[in-house]
Amino acid sequence: MIMQLNTSWKDRLFNVANLGLLILLSLAMVFPIYYTIVLSFTDSTEYYTRDLILWPHHWSLDAYKYLLGTGSFVNSLSVSVFLATVGTALSLLVTGGLSYAISCRRLRFRKSMMFMILLTFLFTPGLVPLYMVVRNLGLIDSIWSLILPSLTSGWYVLLMKGFFDSIPDSLDEAARIDGCTEISVFWRIIIPLSLPAIVAFGLFFAVGYWNTYFSGIMFINQQSKWPLQVLLQNMLVDPTTMGGGTQSVSMQMNRQLPTETLKMAAVVIATIPIMLVYPFLQKHFATGAMVGSVKE
Amino acid sequence: MIQTKKSMLMKSMLVVLGASVLLTACGGGSKGAASDSSEPTKIQMQTLNYATEFIDNTNVIWKEFEKRTNTKLDITWLSPSTSDEKINVMLASGDLPEVTFVETLLNPQLQKMIEQGVFWDLTPYLKDYPNLTAPNLAEMWSVSKVNGKNYVIPRYYPSYGGGAFPILRKDWMDKLGLQTPTTMDQLFDVLKAFKEKDPNGNGQADEIPYAANPDTMGFVYGVFNGTQGQWKLKDDKLVPVITQDESRDAVLWIKKAYDAGLFPKDFAIMKYSQTVDLIRGGSAGGTSQSMNHAWVTGEKIREVVPTADYMPITYLENAQGEKYTPSGAPYYGVYLIPKKVPEAKVKKILEFFDYAYGKEGNELATYGLEGVHYKVENGRKIPTPQSEKDHLGDGNMNNLIHLISDDMAIGAVGMPDDVYNRNVDIVNERKKIKTPEPGRELYSEAYNKYYPEIQKKVSDMRTKVIIGKDTIENYDKLIEQLRNDPNLQKVADEMTEAYHKKMSSK
């Protein structure tokens, strides 16, 4: 449309340059993904002998067969799926409940609850105390150690409270007059109204749980319970970047390195599921992301 | 805090003492009979595991170990890429397993805890365990002493055969009629010939003489300085290698090689795994690896080039005629037993390690059961398919107790006899060379505080000079500045002090 209106050569040049630049830019973003996928299907010998593989001569499913054949990869995948589903559900319940509660003006001690939530913003306890709490609760080596400590965050509670605040109080009142109890107000009025926010937060939580890494390292010892990211770190990260001493390096060098195609296949399997979630939630996302941004 | 810890400690010591008195009273001397009929001892341990799949207590070898040592093992495997953080948190929170593994004695947290008396001093007990105190392990025990006492059970690792040092394509050298290099000039000439004389015979100059990145060239500094590690002994004082003139020569050698096109173009940003991929692809003439890669990596090269022969070189010599070959302390990582473990159990743990350091336990951990996991042919143990199913060979139980043999560093699963025998010859030659490493296992707080940053500055500058992004004059300026740096001086003083302390306590 703009093209038709501005026909001077300067404008056209600008448009062409603009278009070219944007295409280049998007190629720069798409290419790594494309390359990763292609490499994961390439025969490993071919990978070593050819320089840049845009289209493999020999397609191979070996890497995928190997990965899905090892028990540990499948285990870790299911741990991550469990975290992303059960963890997200629990997180939403807790975050939603808590933020709805503190958004209700009738609630007593609301101020002090707010204060305590704010407190977690300002002071974080640090790693060692967290580790000790988790250990003393007997959660070491339990999948719950990856969910319970990160059920919610003060920041999300405040964000969600902002959303609940935007629901008019009169609605709540009307529902009560019609005979709703406290719980049914929450379930039948508040939840349906705040669906966009819930979906948006659900996505935040799901991505967060899918990417569980650090707590996985700290709290899980058994390989069979590692979340996917911990397993990937173990598989993919270059051994020489770790450890200080020369001997440490030499020990690390004794490790068999997985082939590049194997790494790429692992990346593909680990990324695709969470990427697939986005398109389905896209439509809710725009409304959800507005949470708290409009003030009346 | 420390006070309460101490009183807790005293109390637990009393309890332990009381318990042990009771135990000895009840035992009534017939020690053998008592331990036979007794319940298996539960031992909690944690260690690194380099395997891709970790075993658990359903594994045959694990069970065999429990049966033969009358124990119930509770082993936590740590993955090497994430162990650092985890071990430090465990130390800081006091959550220590009965057998605690730490990668290096130089861990600051660990040093403090040893000073505070958190761990058992094992010195008085060791003499009762013949396998642990076998003569061939004597050096391991003496080097790993802290303040003259054995607080740790070192995990054996052979002194020679490991470390990053050139392995070159012998088939290329043979084709071009080249000798194995023994000096830096010869190494340069060999690599240059790889570049120019088309050793792969495809008519194109597509060879990469040396698959290098800045990390893998570390040995060059060692060769030029005639020393290993970061420190050099001069007039009875430890001086940092980074500020030595020889290190400047080393930078210039690497620069010369880089300028001559002997390294990959993206030398500065290559990762170790990428250098390995290059050599696996058959288009590179060599890289720096430990000796067992003659087969671990060499086998992969043969998938692409069937005639490939990947051979470790024995040593390199500097202008002063000092020979350099990588070597290290005869152990890697240490086990400690916290004081919360009662004395009777400490003995049981030592008994377990004694079994594992003996021939039978040692071979069980690495090779498994004869007839099931391996067959003996011509004196070498050939693994059976069952061996792979039970996850032997690539890690697991033999990460708990390494094989007490050079094979740990020079052998590999499936290595053909000719490659193996040549490695044995090379490692025996290497053993004649004692390149000094005066800074080994010296602890200094100033080092931990200041040195990493200084070293990073220098290695960044080195890389910049090598790839031509900065001049050697600026390098000289930086080194001059470091020579006058009070922090580095403090590090050097502390290291010298630690060195003399160690020497006098031996």
TrEMBL record, chain A:
The keyword Transport applies. It is found in: Cell membrane. Residues 77-281 form the ABC transmembrane type-1 domain. CDD domains: TM_PBP2. The keyword Chloroplast does not apply. InterPro entries: MetI-like, MetI-like_sf. The chain crosses the membrane at residues 12-35, 77-102, 114-134, 146-164, 185-210, 261-281. It is a multi-pass membrane protein. Pfam families: BPD_transp_1. Keywords: Cell membrane, Membrane, Transmembrane, Transmembrane helix, Transport. GO terms for cellular component: plasma membrane. One of its GO terms (biological process) is transmembrane transport. Belongs to the binding-protein-dependent transport system permease family. This is ABC transporter permease protein YtcP. It comes from Paenibacillus azoreducens.
TrEMBL record, chain B:
Keywords: Cell membrane, Lipoprotein, Membrane, Palmitate, Signal. Residues 1-24 form the signal peptide. SUPFAM superfamilies: Periplasmic binding protein-like II. Gene3D superfamilies: Periplasmic binding protein-like II. It comes from the Bacteria. It holds the Pfam family SBP_bac_8. This is ABC transporter peptide-binding protein YtcQ. It comes from Paenibacillus azoreducens. The lineage of its organism: Bacteria, Bacillati, Bacillota, Bacilli, Bacillales.
